[in-house]
Design a protein that fits this description.
The two termini are 26 Å apart. The chain has 470 residues and is an all-alpha fold. It has 19 helices and 2 strands.
C-alpha cells in the first residue's frame, strides 16, 4: 500500500493536524494585514512622514526574513512543531507590545518580533503539512494554508473595519480610552494563545524524527496516520532518502557534491519565492486602504474594499484546493502568471488616467475607477488561485528530505527579502514615478514569471516526498 492510497489512512487525525498547523497561516495573515487599517493612527501617534510609514510598515518584513531563514534551520534541530510553538509565543508578544508602543522605535521592535513569528510560520506550516499527509491529497491539504493566510488577512480587515466604525475612526478613542488602532493589534493575542495551546496536542513530523534517529517515535506517528504496515515501510523509505553517510541535514547539503554548485532545485525554489512577491501582491495587503483612498474612495469604503478582496481571495483558494491535485501545480502557476500580467496591465492603464479633482485629491475619470477596482480584484483572484497557495505547496514538497529544511531556509529568506523590497518601496514609488508605472513594473514581473515556470519548475503532483530529487 502506498502512502497516497485510501487504505488505513486516518483522515480524521490528519484533518485535525492540518487544522492546528494552519492556524499558523491565520496568524501569518492577521499579523500581515492588521497594519492595513492602522496607518493613520501610527502617523498621528508617532508624527511619521511617508518614509516613516514605510519603515514602520516594513519592519515586520525584517523579522520575517530572519524568521524564515532561522526557522528552516531550527526545524532540523528542534523540530517542526517546536518551531511553530516558538512562533506562537512571538505572535503573542508582538500583539501586546505593538498595541502598547509609546514610540515608533518600540513599535518597530514589536513588529520585528511579530515578523520572526510570521517568517517561521510561513515556511514551517507548509512543510509540516506536507510531511504528515498522503501524496494523493497533499496539494489540497497544503493549500489550506493559503486559505488560512487569507482568512487571517480578511479577519484583520474585518476587525479593523468594525473597530474603526464603532469608534468613529481608526484614531478615535475606544475601550479604556485607547484609540481603535491599538485595539486592532491587541485583538491578535486571542488567536495567538489558541495557536500555542492547540500545538500541544499534535505530534512531531515523522520525517524530522527519522532524520534525528528517532525511528520508533516516527513509526508510532506514522502508525496513527497510515497504519502499522505502512508505517514500517515508510520509515525505511525515509531513512533511505537521507544522506548515505547518515549525517544530519545541514546548509552545505544545498551544494551539489559533484559539480560544487548550488543545486538547480534550490534556484527553482528561490525563483518561485521571489516572483511571488515581485508581482506586487502585498501592496494590496499592506497598503490597500491607503491605495484606494489615494484614488478617491473614503476610509470606510476603502476598508470595505479590503474585505471584498479578502472574500474573493478565499473563494479563489477554494478553487485551488479543488484543482491542485487534479491538474497539477505547474498549470495553475502558468494560468496565474498570465492572468496577473493582463489584470495588472489594466490597473496600470486605469491609474495612468488619474487627474486632480476640485478638492485637490486624485480622481480616476469616467468609469476608470470601477475598471481599476474590478481589475485589481481579478488580479487578487488569479494570484490566490495560483501563486498564493502553490508557491507554499511547492516549497513544502519539492525539496528532497535531506535538504528540505535548508532549502526552505534559503527560499523563505529570499521570499521575505523580496517582500520587503516591494512593500517598503511602494509609498515612494506611488509618488514618483507614480502608480501607473509602478503597476506596469509588477505586470512585467508577472509576465516574466510565466516563462520562468515553463523553464525551471517541474511538476510534483502525486509524487512521494521520498522521490523528490534535485
Amino acid at each position: 500500500m502506498s502512502e497516497g492510497s485510501a487504505g488505513k489512512v486516518n483522515m480524521a487525525f490528519i484533518a485535525a493536524i492540518v487544522a492546528v498547523a494552519t492556524i499558523g497561516g491565520f496568524m501569518f495573515g492577521y499579523d500581515s494585514g492588521v497594519i492595513n487599517g492602522t496607518q493613520k493612527g501610527l502617523e498621528a501617534a508617532f508624527a511619521l512622514g511617508k518614509l516613516g510609514i514605510g519603515i514602520n510598515v516594513g519592519a515586520i518584513l525584517v523579522g520575517s526574513s530572519i524568521g524564515a531563514f532561522g526557522a528552516g534551520r531550527m526545524a532540523d534541530i528542534i523540530g517542526r512543531r517546536g518551531v511553530m510553538m516558538l512562533a506562537a509565543i512571538l505572535f503573542l508578544a508582538s500583539a501586546l507590545l505593538a498595541g502598547a508602543a509609546g514610540s515608533s522605535a518600540i513599535f518597530i521592535i514589536a513588529r520585528i518580533i511579530g515578523g520572526l513569528g510570521v517568517g517561521a510560520a510561513s515556511v514551517i506550516s507548509p512543510v509540516y503539512i506536507s510531511e504528515v499527509t498522503p501524496a494523493a491529497i497533499r496539494g489540497r491539504l497544503s493549500s489550506v494554508q493559503q486559505v488560512m493566510i487569507i482568512s487571517g488577512l480578511t479577519g484583520a480587515f474585518v476587525a479593523n473595519f468594525v473597530l474603526a466604525r464603532y469608534a468613529g475612526g481608526s484614531t478615535a478613542p475606544l475601550w479604556l480610552d485607547f484609540p481603535a488602532w491599538r485595539w486592532m493589534f491587541w485583538l491578535q493575542a486571542i488567536p495567538a494563545a489558541i495557536y500555542f495551546l492547540a500545538l500541544l496536542v499534535i505530534p512531531e513530523s515523522p520525517r524530522y524524527l527519522v532524520a534525528r534517529g528517532q525511528d520508533e517515535r516516527a513509526r508510532a506517528v506514522l502508525t496513527r496516520l497510515f497504519g502499522a504496515e505502512e508505517a514500517d515501510r515508510k520509515v525505511g523509505e525515509i531513512r533511505a532518502s537521507l544522506a548515505a553517510d547518515h549525517h544530519r541535514p545541514k546548509l552545505s547539503d544545498l551544494i551539489d557534491k559533484v559539480s560544487g554548485k548550488v543545486r538547480p532545485i534550490v534556484w527553482a525554489g528561490i525563483g518561485l519565492a521571489v516572483f511571488q512577491q515581485l508581482v506586487g501582491i502585498n501592496v494590496v495587503f499592506y497598503y490597500g486602504a491607503t491605495l484606494w483612498e489615494a484614488v478617491g474612495f473614503s476610509e470606510d469604503n476603502a476598508l470595505q474594499i479590503n474585505i471584498l478582496s479578502g472574500v474573493l481571495s478565499i473563494g479563489a483558494c477554494l478553487g485551488t484546493i479543488m484543482l491542485v491535485d487534479r491538474i497539477g501545480r505547474k498549470p495553475l502557476l502558468l494560468i496565474g502568471s498570465a492572468g496577473m500580467a493582463v489584470t495588472l496591465a489594466i490597473v496600470a492603464y486605469a491609474f495612468s488616467t488619474a487627474v486632480t479633482g476640485a478638492d485637490g485629491g486624485v480622481v480616476l475619470p469616467g468609469h476608470n475607477g470601477l475598471m481599476a477596482l474590478i481589475a485589481a480584484n481579478l488580479y487578487v483572484i488569479f494570484f490566490n488561485l495560483s501563486w498564493g497557495p502553490i508557491m507554499w505547496v511547492m516549497l513544502g514538497e519539492m525539496f528532497p528530505n535531506q535538504i528540505r529544511g535548508s532549502g526552505l531556509a534559503v527560499a523563505g529568506f529570499a521570499q521575505w527579502i523580496a517582500n520587503a523590497a516591494i512593500s517598503v518601496s511602494f509609498p515612494a514609488l506611488a509618488v514618483s514615478p507614480g502608480l501607473a508605472i509602478t503597476y506596469t513594473g509588477y505586470a512585467l514581473f508577472a509576465a516574466i514569471s510565466f516563462f520562468f515556470v515553463r523553464a525551471m519548475v517541474h511538476e510534483t503532483k502525486g509524487r512521494e516526498l521520498e522521490d523528490m530529487v534535485g
